[in-house]
Give the backbone structure.
Amino acid sequence: MTTFRIAPSILSADFARLGEEVRNVVSAGADIIHFDVMDNHYVPNLTIGPLVCQAIRPHVDVPIDVHLMVKPVDRIIPDFAKAGANIITFHPEASDHIDRSLQLIRDHGCKAGLVFNPATPLSYLEHVMDKIDMILIMSVNPGFGGQSFIPQVLKKIAEARRLIDESGRDILLEVDGGIKIDNIAAAAAAGADTFVAGSAIFGQPDYKAVIDAMRANLAK
Ligand code: DX5
Ligand code: ZN
């Protein structure tokens, strides 16, 4: 049986009360904290860095999943590892040396993964599958929370699932962007096991009600 994981994106949390927000969402049932790093260069938005990761680290005991939307990739990796990140993913287009960036993440004791924009081919995985612990499929174009799920990515999730099964490796398949209570089951049916949700969770007053409803739809 598949273990499903809910990974709230703190991009939509109240940044003035971030410690409390992450504690609340973990008590509400979050399995992972998704941490969106944007640099106003690779993506047209600017968010949070290692200092904020370090600040929330003592507030939660679940893994922190750092989604790097930055270019270049390598020089920020050691800082996030030191700040308590458990998983670090990056966009292959943003790295000059993909294998090196993956190895750097692993050398710093974190799990490593690649992120695929809606139009980025999965062929980047071909020669690095042995260094991958997570595949993150973007179901929106990166840069902002609150966008709509792009249904064409369901086929790509299914393709990523096939590659993971063929590899025989233990690789998380995460989907990110526009995930809501009413489309989470479709993403799971395509093969995803880890679900990022920002606005769907932090946009509601009762985080537990949203997470419970998501799990109920995954159990159907
Ligand atoms: C988009 C980010 C996502 C985003 C998800 O660039 O990577 O993690 O915050 O937010 P929602 O769930 O609101 O689409
Ligand atoms: Zn993200």
